[in-house]
Design goal:
The chain is an alpha+beta fold and 199 residues long. The protein folds into two domains: 109 residues; 87 residues, 2-Layer Sandwich (Alpha-Beta Plaits), CATH 3.30.70.100. Helix content is 45%, strand content 15%. The relative contact order is 0.16.
């Protein structure tokens, strides 16, 4: 039974670790400390291995739980009701929690408050579009974090960030903000602007 507890613990740990790089930006926004957002981005390359390990460990834990009692060599009473922590219900809860953690990058955007503003355009010639190349983003949570922080600035018309392309295309009113301010806000998230070009 000690092996079963270790398997459950390992499954939980690997599931949480696999999504830590995507959980941190959400926690950073909630805590108001956006600079820590990219702290665990180094984990992203290991994510597929951690997911695989989580699945293997939980499958083995379920195998151990479901295999017939005749295969177990023990002197214990087979009819004895197991403690909750050793029950199928607990293992089921752990499995669901692991799935929720592993899927976190796909639904992390719901945790960010809506920062869209009502934009009143006075002169279209004041609107400028700039592409910022950004390093350190690893998932949609990173995209949401950058958009959330940039949209706090006055004069932002549109912000579209892509972790896959490693960029943010930002439309802004140049009479209300500028590229230096936008770059400063992006850098404050923990991700770094590596280049920028006007579109």
């Amino acid at each position: 039974m000690k092996i079963e507890n270790k398997l459950i613990g390992t499954g939980l740990l690997t599931a949480i670790t696999a999504s830590l790089c995507c959980i941190t930006p959400v926690l950073a926004v909630i805590a108001g400390t956006s600079g820590i957002a990219s702290t665990f981005s180094w984990i992203e390359p290991f994510r597929p291995y951690l997911i695989g390990l989580t699945i293997l460990v939980l499958c083995f834990a379920w195998y151990q739980k479901l295999k017939s009692k005749n295969e177990i060599d023990c002197e214990c009473d087979i009819n004895e009701k197991p403690k909750f922590i050793r029950s199928k219900t607990f293992l089921g809860i752990v499995t669901v929690f692991a799935i929720v953690m592993l899927a976190f990058p796909y639904y992390s955007g719901i945790f960010y408050p809506n920062t869209e503003k009502q934009i009143i355009l006075v002169d279209k010639s004041d609107i400028k579009t700039t592409e910022f190349k950004i390093s350190g983003m690893t998932c949609t949570g990173c995209e949401e974090h950058v958009n959330h922080e940039v949209n706090k600035l006055n004069g932002i018309v549109n912000s579209k960030t892509s972790y896959e392309k490693g960029n943010a295309i930002i439309e802004f009113d140049k009479t209300k903000t500028n590229e230096m301010e936008i770059e400063k806000v992006i850098n404050s998230t923990g991700y770094k602007v590596t280049d920028k070009e006007e579109n």
